[in-house]
Amino acid sequence: MANKVYPNAVTAVADQLRDGMTILSGGFGLCGIPDALIEAIRASGVRNLTIVTNNPGIDGIGIGRLVETRQVAKLIASYAGENATFARQYLAGEVEMEYNPQGTLAERIRAGGAGIPAFYTPTGVGTDIARGKETREFNGRPCLLEHGIFGDLALVHAWKGDTEGNLLYRLTARNFNPVMATAAKVTIAEVEQLVQPGAIDADHIMTPGIFVKRIVELPRVEKHIEKLTVRQRA
């Protein structure tokens, strides 16, 4: 079996990057984002990227870093309201945005990973989302044709992974990571803990190693908080 373990994020992505590629990036807000892998892409200088992600986070963190360096040409996401730099670029016509209802985005990625080219959904009928899309009626209900998403590279963050690439996500960090891990030619995972095969119970594996080509153990993990909300003590 080929060795999937790389010493760091830079070496893991080094020969996989090119201008104009499509990259899927896991996470929700700042939770479960593949931060080290994103930083490696920023440092590489690769440009004109199409980024598929739930949202580009905030300025200067995660995908926000690639926005600041103008490496993103197009964003396919469900929300971008927390990133002021992206908003300025979008309103100035400097970057393209393809909005998706959040459930539709998740299903487009899942479909891409399952080899399903397209599917119909009632979500978005009668809204701007429907512009230019084929509509068909099922049981008296109009539905839009949405296409599956399959990228060149998927970046995911997991709590634990073994050297064969089997992954276990923790709590909310599960979000978009599992579906994205299946929906690209090459999937690279960064993990908080790297263990030997068999250390993760087979019933607990969320992404089978067959989907993961490369894996990196993080020397340290900084978990960002997008909005800190606390309850006052009694």
TrEMBL record:
It holds the Pfam family CoA_trans. Keywords: Transferase. The keyword Signal does not apply. InterPro entries: 3-oxoacid_CoA-transf_A, CoA_trans_fam_I, NagB/RpiA_transferase-like. GO terms for molecular function: CoA-transferase activity. This is CoA transferase subunit A. The lineage of its organism: Bacteria, Pseudomonadati, Pseudomonadota, Alphaproteobacteria, Sphingomonadales.
